[in-house]
Design brief:
The structure is a homodimer. By secondary structure, chain A is α/β, with parallel strands linked by helices. Chain A has 12 helices and 8 strands. In chain A, strands 1, 2, 3, 4, 5, 6, 7 and 8 form an 8-stranded mixed sheet that branches. The two termini of chain A are 27 Å apart. Chains A and B meet through α8, β3, β4, α9 and α10 of A and α8, β3, β4, α9 and α10 of B.
């Protein structure tokens, strides 16, 4: 495959070269680093890695929308967090909850999780998918002035296709909710539902007459972040990834899991250093960036390494 | 595809015809029952559906082997169940535990589960796969006088290939342990690790220096049987199955989940009625067989519907 025809939105910098060098090495038969195609698994975080996560993750915006709906039914909720933030669209409070989490303080995240847990209690998986997709189809990013469905990073989508062209199987491995991502992941990223790994609400199998449905419990089954990511990647794939890409401290275990003693891996970290085109922040990614420097992980500078960030910008 | 070239180990009976009719109907463009290829998901139980499960499930025999190993290290275990049964190779006690379970009595199964839970505590997933495969490569069925790895049902393997030839994606959805099945499922059934769904022990992500590993906890994460099967199929695939095959009461929810209000499904139930070539039993399958009769599920008689059961018999 001619290099000039792939990864077209990537500048000819070290990041792109590291990607191409690695993929060619593991894909070339006879290469010392050759890896058999069935072992070519690539996993990518979603929020902040495949699309924008600031000022708040997209899923959180959907959950805000839904929580505001819930306060219509139960007005007493309006005085409590995170419902208050939902109604007031107070992104600051919500964004801080994630930053606090990455710094080890889960107090606000716990409030959020409880509200998320109960928000969809008793809803069927199919109905949730319809609601999520319906909202996503008309919702826009609050500051980038584009639909959420246009907030994917084009260079990363090119990377997914480049890997697949070299016999990799690509997966999303995100802290975001699995069933929130599934309805749009195929259209947006070309990744079908069975290759979307993420956090999960508990499910109950419900039967009534001939009909069956899966209903969400008011309980998170697992939060797919940090050390849970390797567990969920193994559970889904039964393999270690060969390529892993993320952007925050919560991705460190996943990136570490990719390497084994006798097999190298490509570890990618998206650095948000592009306030003109996207955002500039390192909060919640400090340890990952330090580790990248110390261990030779490939840091992708949005500003320096990408010709374009979004498709039509 | 010419029918005489597929499902060669199936007699020209109603069961085979039901399979072919269904697959042709959902695969023929323009057919009223046409189903788009991405929705053609087929799920199959393993023990008793794809290979023999009597007198005890193969995995249980491996666990017995391992428990007997453990009593070498801790002789006090020899007087306690299920270690006692393990050392004495008392298949009767163990087989009954499963039958009791299907009848609603989990007392012996709980003892077994606890022992299974602690048997592999602290073992890495890779080491477990090596142990399981090593044992399986030399272990033989206690009464069929053939290696365990020759106990697969050839007609069912032909069915997997027939479905795949018609753009189905096949999955195992078993009450057996996911990581026990994965090391042999590709060689035996042509089903790769990412398409093996089963029960799971909890996992811890462990790091030491640059190395990472996943270690089993002494705790089952979930037992993939009964109403848990639809949950795990959804978690893995994000879809309802279109074809589902099982052989016991524990498969009923999975088979029911395949049908939706506006879409029919092929539901298959393997009936063990062949004492000459395999086994004859309905214990633990009574309710499934009743439901099959009432709802028009396709019952596969091993005796009447299969020319051969095992490859070299």
């Amino acid at each position: 495959m001619a290099n000039e025809r792939v990864l077209a939105s990537w500048r000819e910098t070290g990041a792109r070269q590291a990607v191409v060098d690695f993929v060619e090495a593991v894909s070339t038969e006879g290469s010392r680093r050759f890896v058999t195609p069935s072992e070519r698994i690539a996993v990518f975080d979603n929020d902040g890695t495949l699309w924008s996560e600031k000022p708040i993750p997209v899923q959180l915006d959907f959950t805000l929308f839904w929580m505001a709906e819930l306060t219509e039914r139960d007005p007493a909720l309006k005085d409590r967090q995170p419902y208050k933030a939902a109604v007031e669209r107070d992104f600051h409070w919500l964004g801080d909850a994630m930053v606090k989490h990455y710094r080890g303080d889960d107090s606000d995240l716990t409030l959020l999780e409880r509200a998320i847990e109960s928000a969809f209690e008793g809803m069927a998986v199919d109905a949730f998918a319809t609601e999520a997709l319906g909202w996503l189809g008309q919702a826009s990013h609050p500051t980038l002035h584009r639909p959420y469905l246009s907030c994917r990073f084009e260079p990363m989508v090119e990377l997914l296709r480049y890997l697949e062209a070299n016999s990799f199987v690509t997966y999303i491995a995100s802290g975001g909710d699995r069933d929130f991502m599934r309805p749009f992941a195929e259209a947006l990223y070309g990744i079908p539902p069975e290759r979307v790994i993420g956090s999960s609400l508990g499910l109950d199998f419900n039967t009534g007459g001939d009909d069956t449905e899966l209903l969400y419990k008011s309980k998170i089954e697992f939060f797919d972040d940090g050390p849970e990511k390797p567990v969920r990647i193994w559970s889904r794939t039964g393999r270690r990834p060969l390529v892993a890409g993320g952007n925050s401290n919560g991705d460190i275990p996943m990136l570490r899991f990719a390497r084994t003693g006798d097999r190298d891996a490509l570890r990618l970290l998206v650095l948000h250093d592009d306030p003109e085109r996207e955002f500039a922040y390192t909060a919640g990614a400090e340890e990952a960036l330090e580790r990248a420097k110390a261990r030779g992980w490939t840091v992708i500078s949005m500003k320096d390494d990408w010709v374009t960030v979004f498709a039509d910008s």
